[in-house]
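One chain given next:
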Amino acid sequence: MAPLLDTFYQSNSLTLKILSLLRYYGVFRKTYRFLKKSQWWSKEELEAYQLGQLQNLLHHAYENVPYYRRVFDERQLKPEDIRSLADLQMLPYLTKDIVQNNREELKARNYPEEAFEYVTSGGTTGNPLGFYYEKGVSRAKEWAFMKTQWDRVGYSFFDKCVILRGNIVKSANDGKYWEKSFFGRWLILSSYHMNNDTIADYAHQIRLFRPKFIQAFPSTIFTIAQYIKDNRIEEKFPTLQAILCGSEKVYPWERELIESVFKCRIYSWYGMSEQVTLAGECEDNAEYHIFSEYGIVELISDTGSQIHQTEEQGEVVATSLTNYCFPFIRYRTKDHAIMATNENCECGRHYSRLKTVVGRDYEYIMTSKGKVILSFASTPSSTFDNVLKFQFIQEKIGEVTMNIVKKSTYTDRDSDTILQTLQRKMGNDVHIDIQFVVDIPKTKNGKYQFFIQNIPLEEKSDGVKS
């Protein structure tokens, strides 16, 4: 469920990645210029745009994507039968299982093979998903949307920025948990080496760098803020204008503490690797504007019925309007959200809004030296390619059992890759034991529980506070 940025940041060579994006600068520039205007359209203009883009997408999918040709034919439908956004309900939901079982049939046949970039979701639900971007183009469009979103707080790619998003830093084994990238404008800190012994250095390095912005997982920057507060450290961050948070839910108590310590506001966004929906907080309030140009969002109840009431929680179902090479139409994200009221936003935008995003919880792994914040959103895509499901269970500090349901293609090499990847992130302070299981049972709510921690509360309190 992690956004594209997590895939982008997983590499240490961020400068090289940015330079590679310049090959598709025309796509970025065209999308960005369009969004600078369209974000101020009326509600009627946005809906008309969505309907036009949806009809284009459906005609394309019917003509070029075998899976959708079969879906339409089985229901005796044609793309022109979808005459309104509400008519989209005539089509079935797309689920993660359907994507996994029909991956090749979901590829558009009018794209050459070299146009497809294989990626996987981070597997934060224990069930990693493989699919395709349009090589270069998908990432360039994503950056245009993110740049438009961050414009709300005055962010520029050339501003000095601290990045705390699950990166692995090359020099970490030598005791240096940070490195600079993007021509010295970005300070990248390793989230996985932050513990009782090192956290003071993290706070100090951020102050010395004098950033204008911080991009972070909420849980990571919260831990630093908690440390500064608990230890009454007089760290000042006078140049900091905003903290940009994504990939995890920002809880109210996290927001309150972080903003009080760093003396600036958090701006959070919601998205996912599948690129079906993107929403970001307004500069005038904490509600999330949903980019109408990015995708069509529906909320459904547990029984699958449409939710039209505001203030009612539902599962997010979304249709991407940006990726034609591998269309996601009515995709069930398994994320839950609450729609805001229909009242106009004071900022002047007429996007639909989410009051809050729920169900994006994160977990901790307790190491022998303290708490390490572990998010698999930034784990390299290939790590879990041959894993059907996985689950972590921790009963003792410093020890973790990883249950794995193997695919038929799984080999001992996959075990080595997984262990090496996790050890690079956690160091030698956690012993990981892989166990193979036939299945991982669902909870009473029908969901897979990705992480189970049964460490007594009094033992947790010995680590870095959360």
